[in-house]
Amino acid sequence: MKPLNLIALLCFLGGATWALTRSDRSVREIQYYYYSALMPFLKAGSAMEEKARNFSREVEHSKALEVELELTRAELSKLRQVEQRFTDLETENMRLRDALEFKKNTPFTLIAARITRRQTTNWYKTLEINRGEESFIGNQNPVVTAEGLVGKIDLSGKEFATVILLTDEKCQVSAKIEGSPEVGILSGRRADYGDPPMLALRFLSKKANLKKGQRVFSNGRGGIIPANILLGTIESVETGAQDSEALVRPAVNFNDLVTVFVIPSAN
Amino acid sequence: MFRYSISLLILILLAVIAQQFVPTFIALYNARVFLLLIVFLCIAVTVPLPVMFLFALICGFLWDAQCTLGSPAVDTSIYLDPVASLRFGTSILLFGFAGLLMHGFRPLFLQGKWYVSALLTGIATFLYCMSEYALIDFVRGSFTVDRGVLSQCGYTSLFSIIVSPLAFAALFYIARLFDHSIVETNRSKRRFT
Q1: Closest to A120 measured CA to CA, from B137, B30, B55
Q2: How many domains does chain A have?
Q3: Is residue A13 part of a domain?
Q4: A223 and A173 part of one domain
Q5: Same domain, residue pair A62 and A41
């Protein structure tokens, strides 16, 4: 081996060792600066994506209009378009009302956030939202919707935060089951490509008497996720040698998320 | 060479930015165009070993800055079995190994057979993804590989094979721009002298 190559290899291994021995705090700082540097591009990209989506919507509308014009009179098609737009607005209005109602009815202070990106890594199930420390969002804060728990904050920056989803194996929540004394730890399953991806409720007693459809809630133990947030419903139970494990269908439709709510640290 | 290497660094940074806007294909088992890895693998065959190591260090560092999960500050009396994830810096080693694999076939690239390297980017991507998954399996203490995992790695590597010719075209263009040769133009002459 050439001396220069050997020196390069040693430097490379030295650099890798340096990186591998960083403390969690240093890593968080590095990530903070990394995302802060990327933020202008992410913001610009998000704005462009929004414009592109609007444009594509407009194109779809005009195509539909052309078809309508061929089939019916111009006046009728115009009315139909208005009706369509009204329905869209009504749906959007209902969605926003639901969100507002949810925000009003919850005992926590909630911060609404829009999802900007999904699945930024190869194997971990994460998404990014457009709120961060400026909105008092901190690491480990729970993220919810009207349906139930979405996950928790993994990294919060100034104007962004990364959410680790409930469907990821690393996101663990202490859970209880409606109408049962059973408690367990709920988490996602590795490499689950199902639609929806199922959750595993582990460490249940061997004689756990559970039925399909029973609801699973957070029990508040561990101090991160508040109690009584809906997590999902029991799908099936498997009894092992020492304990039981239940398969849980998540309450939230993770493919359909647009807006989420973060329960900030102040709660 | 220096100007070429600096331009490659800029190309890597552009790939990092572009990677942010590349979505995953849910229908294809969350496969994605792993742009940063593709650009790095293509660069790896066009530069000497020390420069390849430098770029592996940079790419691994950036990828880990994007992907590393924090360790949750959980109550260990409740969460008895906290789930581990890969440490910051793991990707540096993985990028290094993938780069070495590509670099091992550099003589073929120097002969002008870039298509062999393009195919190799697919293999290296597959090995990278599988190694990453195997390491996650290892730190979490169980080994589960199913059709979904293989499909995700397979489709991601397929995307690499499709996209890598574009990356090579960009590299040839940059090399020409800075009057730098990344393939041996006078190979036959060298062989007989």
Answers
A1: B30
A2: 2
A3: no
A4: yes
A5: yes
CA distance B123 to B105: 12
Q: CB distance from A32 to chain B under 8 Å? A: no
Mapped onto helix, strand or coil, the DSSP state of residue A152 is strand
Domain of A260: which CATH number? Answer: 2.40.10.350
Q: Which of A38, A72, A105 corresponds to the end of one domain?
A: A105
Contact assignment for A174 to B79 by CB distance below 8 Å: yes
Could you read off the pLDDT of A53-103 as tens digits, one per residue? 778 777 777 777 777 767 767 677 567 666 777 777 777 777 777 777 776
- Cβ of B16 and A38 within 8 Å? yes
Q: Are residues A154 and A247 in the same domain?
A: yes
**Average pLDDT of span A227-236:** 91
Any B CB within 8 A of A265 CB? no
Whether the pLDDT of residue A1 is over 80: the answer is no
Q: What is the pLDDT of residues A103-126, one digit of tens each?
A: 666 667 788 898 888 877 888 899
How many A/B residue pairs have CB atoms within 8 Å? Answer: 145
Quick check: A122 and B34 CB within 8 A? yes
- Chain B hits for A122, CB-CB cut-off 8 Å, are 32, 34, 67, 129, 132-133, 152, 156
Model pLDDT, residue A77: 58
Domain span including residue A259:
109-267
Average pLDDT over residues A121-146: 88
Q: Cβ neighbours of residue B91 under 8 Å, at least 6 residues apart? A: B59, B60, B61, B63, B64, B67, B132
Q: What is the pTM of this model?
A: 0.82
Mean pLDDT, residues B5-11: 93
Question: Does residue A15 belong to any structural domain of this protein?
Answer: no
Q: Please report, for residues A5, A28, A87, A211, the alpha-carbon distance to residue A69 in angstroms, rounded to integers and kept in the order given.
A: 71, 57, 20, 55
Predicted pLDDT of residue A106: 67
Residue A11 lies in a domain: no
Mean pLDDT is lowest, of A10-19, A104-113, B46-55, B61-70, for A104-113
Residue A156 belongs to some domain of the structure: yes
Q: Do residues A200 and A69 share a domain?
A: no
Which domains, from first to last, does chain B contain? 2-70+83-185 (1.10.1760)
Distance CA B88, CA B68 (A): 6
What does the pLDDT read at residue B189? 46
Domain end point (choices A105, A140, A174) = A105
A151 and A203 co-located in one domain: yes
Query: What pLDDT does residue A267 have?
Result: 54
* Min distance A156 CA to chain B CA atoms (Å): 11
- Angle, helices B49-67 vs B2-19, to 10°: value is 20
